[in-house]
């Protein structure tokens, strides 16, 4: 029971972080009167932005792309590009073990994410596969769009005390997340004792970053006008999106935790040639950080070629798929399928070239 409680806490932490990012994306959308959605109409710009955010070490950049997708600011192809470019927390371990090759890998993943995102949208259009229906609660209101409404709902940089229930609940929950992070609880579970010591410093830096972002979320809740708080933060994000994201995140984390010891995953990827490539790619389907450390370790020790590391890095996305599962399970499956196909193709081509 104890591991399940730990994974539930991990799910709550991830959901809280995604909530804060969605809150700021929502704020930009409201303050620009919906113009944020125009990113998806600006050609390759969205693919470059999504791939760049995805290629940054850790999951925060990809979480931001998931949040933008929930507002319709980027296409499903752009989200796929972010997932192609990210390799989750394993990026920190790569930087510790082989920094020069890791930076080259991240640059390559950025290119793969940019091109792969665009190609995914092209393929989806030809296959007539559209994104799921946009969230109906994401529509802007008169208070957001009209000068009269905006005047009634002015933003002032001072704490507000109206709408006490939602304001109090959100502040307490977010401060609880900060306290948990400060207490030293790791945001991402690597499970089964696989979190390596080389990740400690970068993990602490990421924890400080997440704590700072969450404190910014607390400040946003405290100064938010009543309409933005009640309609956008409380009803739309907290009551509508957060429970779904938490449920899918918890299910994925608990499911992986119950699969068995890490050694069983290691047997999946240890092999020769094509079998190792396929095993590492299938391992990448697991939607959390941690199991993929096996492939990083195999590459660092010379037991796996570059092609295997690249294929696994393309397919896996750390925890970045989890918010998308909460937003649209069907879209998450489509994006993950594209990741697997592209990862296998590029990995096979590299292996055929002797890499």
Characteristics:
mainly alpha; 70% helix; 17 helices; 355 residues
The H-and-E topology, N to C, reads as HHHHHHHHHHHHHHHHH
Roughly how much helix do the residues carry, as a percent range?
A: over 70%
Number of strands: 0
User: How does the helix and strand content classify structurally?
Assistant: mainly alpha
Question: What is the CA-based Rg, rounded?
Answer: 20 Å
Strand proportion, as a percent range, falls in under 5%
Instruction: Report the span from N to C terminus.
Output: 44 Å
Low-confidence stretches: 188-202
Q: How would you sum up the major sheet?
A: none
Describe the structure.
With 355 residues, the protein is mainly α. The protein has one domain. 70% of the residues lie in helices and 0% in strands. The protein has 17 helices and no strands. It has helices spanning 2-31, 45-55, 60-70, 76-85, 90-97, 99-126, 142-145, 147-152, 164-182, 200-223, 226-257, 262-269, 274-283, 293-300, 306-315, 321-327, 329-352. The longest helix is centred in the last third of the chain and has 32 residues, at 226-257. It is globular. The termini are far apart. Residues 188-202 have low confidence and may be disordered.
